[in-house]
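ligand=L-homoserine
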Amino acid sequence: MEPVNLGLLGMGTVGGGTVTVLTDNAGEIARRAGREIHIAHAAAHQYDPQIRGLERIGRISKDASAVVEDPDIDIVIELIGGYSPAKELVLRAIEQGKHVVTANKALIALHGNEIFAAARGRGVTVAFEAAVAGGIPIIKALREGLAANHIEWIAGIINGTGNYILTEMGDKGRDFDAVLAEAQALGYAEADPAFDVEGIDAAHKLTILGSLAFGMPLQFAKTYTEGISGIQAQDVAYAADLGYQIKHLGITRKTDQGIEMRVHPTLIPRRRLIANVNGVMNAVLIKGDAVGPTLYYGAGAGAMPTASAVVADVVDVTRALTTDRDNRVPHLAFQPDELSDVPVLPMEQVRTAYYLRVIALDQPGVMARIAGILGEEGISIEAIQQKAPAQGDTHVPLVMLTRRVPEGQMNRAIARIENLESVTGQVVRIRMEPLAG
Ligand code: HSE
C-alpha cells in the first residue's frame, strides 16, 4: 500500500518531537497503522537543524499554504499554535478534503464548532488528542473508553507549567518568576506565559473536556478562569497544616441547574492521589456513573509526550481513511445532532466549600464578628484557626474552612467582612473540593 503523506505545519517543540517520534518508531507505527507514514512536506519559519529525522522529510519550506494546497498530502498536522493563521490553514486544509491533526487547544476551544462543522461537511476528521493534557490519551478515554457512562464530573491538573510552579513554590519555597523562567526554557510554557499562569490554557482544555463529557457545543467564553499568580506561600503552608494541597484545577460538573465550568486554584485533601501529582505532570480525574472515578496521569507538556498524542491521532486517522465517513467517532463524542445546549452555570451560582484567610486586629470580639457575618449569610464554618502574628504586628491571620455554599452568598459575606474596621486588606478566598468518588 502507498504510504500516507503528512503535511507538517510548524517545527517548534511539538513539531520537532513529532518528526523524531515518527522517525524513531517508524516500524512500530507502520505495523499499527497498516501503512508507512511519511512527512512529505513541512513548513516552518524556524527549526532546530539537529531535529532527529529531519533528513526523512520530503520537502521543507517556509510556505504553510503550499503544504495545505499540496495535492499529495493526505493529513495536515497543524502545530503552529495560536488562532491565526492556524484557523485559516486548518479550514483551507478541510476544504481541500484533507484530514487534520492538531495540538492547538486555543483553536479548538474557540473555533472548534465552526471547524468541526466544516469537517463534517467535507467528510474529513479533525483529531486533537494532543490539545488536552499532552501525552495522556484523555480525549480517547472520554470519547470512547467511557462511552457507556453519564459523566458526573471531571477535575484535572491540565496545565503543566502551572503545576510545576506550584510544586516548586510549595516544596522548595522557590520564587514564582524563577520557576516560570525554567518552565519556559524547558519548552513547557505557552508563547505568552500569561496563558499558563492566568489559567487561560487550562480553560481552553477544560472547555474541550466539558463538551466531550456532556455533549454540548464548545463554549470557552462561559468558562470561569482564575490563575495562580495570587497564590501566596503562607496559604500553601496553612492549607498543608489543615491536610490540604493547593492545586490549579479545571473542574466541570453536571448539576440540576446546569454545567459548572471553572478553572481556579483549589484546596484538595492531600490523601487524594491527584493531590500528589507534581511538577509538569498532569492528571485528570473523571467520575462516571457506571465506572466510578477513574484517574489518568502523565506528562502534560513537552516535545516527546505531546508528539506521542499527535502521532496516535495520525495512526487513528490513517486507520479510518477507508472507513465510512458517517461511522467515524464524532468530534465531540456525541452525534452532532445530539449535542444539547445545556446552560453553563454563572460562577455566582456554583456551590463549593472555601478556604478563607482574613487579616484581623488581635482584639476580643473580632473573630466573633467575622463568624457572625458568615452565620448571617447562611455559611457554615467547618474549621477556624488563629495563626501567629508577625513579630510586633497587632494583626493576626485567621484561617477558616467553610462548608459548601453558592459563590454569590460567599461574595456578599466577603464584602461585609472586608468592610469591618478590624479587618485589613482583602480576604483571601480559595475554593475547596473534596473530590470524593
Ligand atoms: N503550556 C502548556 C502546559 C503546554 O504547560 O501545560 C501543554 O498544553
